Amino acid sequence: MDAIAFDRVTLARAGRIVLTDVSAAIRPGEFIGVFGPNGAGKTTLLHAVLGLLQPVSGALRVFGATPMRGNDEAGYLPQTRTPSPDLRLRGRDFVASAFRGERFGLPRLGRDGRREVDWAIETVEAKALAYRVLRELSGGELQRLHLAQALLGKPKLLLLDEPLTGLDPHFQEAAVALVKRIQRSRGITVLFTAHELNPLLGAMDRVLYLGQGRAALGTVDEVITGEVLSRLYGARIEVLRGNGRILVASGRGPVESDVHRHDV
Amino acid sequence: MSIATMFEYGFMRTAFLAGGVVAVVAGAVGFFLVLRQLTFAGHALSHVGFAGATGAILVGISPLWGLLAFTLAAGAAMGLLGDRLRGRDVAVGIILSLSLGLGVLFLSFYTAHATQATAILFGNVLAVSPDTLWSLLGLSVLSLSALAAISRPLLFATLEPDLAEAKGVSLRLLSVLFLSIVAVAVAEASQIVGVLLVFALMVGPGAASLRLTSRIGRGVALSILLALLETWAGIALAYVTDWPTSFWIVSLGCLVYFLSALSPA
Do B37 and A84 touch (CB under 8 A)? Predict the structure, then answer.
């Protein structure tokens, strides 16, 4: 059984078609890097996998079932993550707020909850952060606590939306390596959206590249080619390789840094 | 007057009980109000309440119920509008002015009750009747139970709104429920310190406790404790000095808040 199977799926957001007729199958335990220009539908795709958004047409299956909102099988790291910068709340309480946080009642963890929270914090190697307050943490450290929240409920699938945005290159590398270790040790499937290919080159098994309403899934060598990307961008794209790095460039210059500039 | 004789008077005992009952609610609700960065919603609700309170006097019912009706309606509306209120400071401010203006109009129809205007604006805990005390107790039990019931998803949605929504939490429903609870707390607190000074009693203890503790549970407990101490010490100081209770409660609230601001990060 596939972890995620798109069968001629069309997705729309706010009445606008974002992805058309996408078919792709992601196997259990794969690390998939999801790329594409802004507005290509990366977040929309993740939302559909989470069950927050129904396809306009086609069939989407996650572990053989129609995705349901609040499903414990999928851990999610949303793109907008801004706790109040002045908050003097300690890291562990912050992580714990996400443990079965959708249930009514008092926010008591219980023994199972405490064990689960400790496990998630240990898994993201953040034990030293658990007793520090949020306002003292750097972006990369906060990111690890968000990842711990995504791991609560021991999901089989991790959906990470732009986890590298705003991180220094050194922290980007550490974040990718951490996700890779978790994916390996727990054998979970990872969908990791990003703007830049290079930080993910050593970690991902395959690439899902979105653009112009279409999607291409395959290995880096299959997808990151001038021919495929020109079709996805609707413009002439060149792919340059050297030193184990890849530069994707349009006639006007590097595509990725263009994308990045829009984002800031 | 000597503090030893304080509890010999029935009105003082009622004031201590009423102040205590309200302080617990103000402290607990205020903590979440500060955490959610909604403190000015509390301020706005109290202003809307002024029109309700004066309107109630005009039609001959207790100001508490008029206040409650108006703050509840406004709280629910704010919860439903949600993000659409962001950046609408001018519209919100003008509606607040309108409600204060309406309050003035209602009062002018009933000049005999000029002292009641002062009581609504600045509070008069020493004049709380036993009947009102029972109403306050009932409202406190109701609002604290409701807060306890939603506290878990409220905390989740406050710290991680996007993740909470993905997990099936209805942010709008939570917002409406929470602001309704705030509306009840504001109506209650107005009985003690008046609509103009609600901010100090609702926000001061919560803001101070968020600076003094890094745990959620302890933060709520400390916020309640501070609200209780400020209220009771304020009533006692008013008894001794014969200065207004509201002045003392608000001053203690400010003092505690600024002292907490001096605490190391």
Answer: yes
